[in-house]
Amino acid sequence: MRPNQLGFYYAALALTNVTRGACIVAQAWSAAMTGAGLAAVGQIFVVSHAVIILCGPFVGVMIDRYSRRHLAIIGQLLIGCATLIPWLWVSAGWPLSLWALMFVAAGASLGYVVMSGALDAIQQAVGERKDQPRISAMAGSIRQGFMIAGSGIAGLGIHYFSPAAAYLFCSLFCVIAAGLIYFLPDARVNAARRGTVFTEVIVGLRELNAMPAVLRIGLLTAIGFSVGQLSNVLLPNFVKDELGGDSRLFGIVDALWSVGGVLSPLLLARFIGLHRLSNVEYWSAILLGLVTALVWSVERPASLMIAYFFLGCLFSITKVVCDGRVLEICAGEVVGRVRTHIQSLISVVGLFIYLSPSILPIRTASASYLLWGSLVALCAIALFWTDTKARAREGGLQSERTG
Prior knowledge:
The protein is mainly alpha-helical and 403 residues long. Helices cover 84% and strands 0% of the residues. The chain contains 13 helices and no strands. The longest helix has 38 residues, at 365-402. The two termini are 38 Å apart. The model has no long low-confidence stretch (mean pLDDT 80).
């Protein structure tokens, strides 16, 4: 392991997630203030996910072709430029429109997929392969903790100044983060180019299909992420309509998810250092689905708080262990494409979830928790069973060869 580079990596990761947390809050509040109704917030997130789906595979090819450090800096500066637009727009005397916010969301989302994919690839260069699960656990805690900090900074900026000021803070943090990324290794892969960008996108999909273990982890990551995406849609209505709560209760419940998300990777990093945890990603995903389904029966605010604390813990464990497994298994020359394909898969699920209130006939938030939580648990069980069968088959083949 390279301690100095790892320290710069963690610092850059912290600042990039301060920016991300602040940007999400600024986007949601700005969209709500446009007068376009509650659907405006959902439309902003739909635009973000659509950009990831359309551009993610091609960004993965760039990450596997060019300097990952330079791409991470470019992605960070792209986010900085996109988030500077609202401040310039308001300074010119124009009101923020929904179309302008969609343009900002698209630019920031494109920058994020470039930056995050490149940073994931750089993580392989700052730590040994055997250390990737532990590094991912620590990185997961840093992501969650500093996203909370970014949300708080944006909230203060909006309260004391304006939403445009929150965007300006995002832009400034992006510049500082880009400076930190400059000190990270280049992590360029010296592999021969195999064809056009479209050809290499297909190659990346074939590589993913040729690694069933990584494909299963990618699917598990997507269904785990779906619980967080579902919560973004359902929690406000569940608190207001079914518990009769107010914004204070919503804020406390949402914060407890984040507290669980920060604490669990720290504990996980400690256990990974002491023991080799087997199948923890599958067990955490199964429990994540079951706890989500149990929210259906919640009738008291205290019960919802407890449930969301554990949801944050289980969500974070599922994500960081899956991230570590991917970086541990994938070769350096294809990790960019594999990671961005997984991001695209997550965004496909996210699009369905954000559009589901207008598509599915389910009318209550509690019924949606029950339905989606049950689906998550069943899918995780199916993936666990498939993984167990595949490992048993591989073990049998190895025994035949040695015998």
